[in-house]
Amino acid sequence: MAKEKLKVIKEADLTNNCPECFNQDLKLTFYQKHTYGRFFHKTTNEISNQIVCRKCSSMIYPVKWTDDIERLFDYYQKTVVPEKKSTKPTFLFFIILLLMIAIVGIGVYFFLGGTIKV
């Protein structure tokens, strides 16, 4: 079963007021989703975000955003540069691939009668 992990690609400190406690210590974080399986590691195009108040530790959802928070969010969203979508094979994939090639080679060798005629 593949494991999913959100990797931080950008963090920004916002000086806007928190809608809950009115403190000016917010943190905006952008994440990119990575999937780790036995045979492949995948980087997806899926990007998520989160705004958290550092004082009251509450998440600020888009419903409670003020115009200033929304303006800063749009600005930082344009500056986010995610990793390219990719799929990378793991070491286990290469071992199984080499074993399969070896099994096919041995099968062909015995199918030809155990002798190679040149």
Domain count: 1
Structural class designation: alpha+beta
Largest sheet: 4 strands, antiparallel
- Note the run of SSEs as H and E: EEEHEH
Total DSSP helices: 2
Tell how many strands the DSSP assignment holds.
4
Query: What is the distance, rounded to the nearest whole angstrom, between the alpha carbons of the first and last residues?
Result: 47 Å
Beta percentage is 25-35%
Quaternary structure: single chain
Q: Output the strand order for the largest sheet.
A: 1-2-3-4
Q: In percent, how helical is the residue content?
A: 25-40%
Unreliable stretches: none
Mean pLDDT: 88
Question: Notable features of this structure?
Answer:
118 residues; alpha+beta; membrane; transmembrane helix
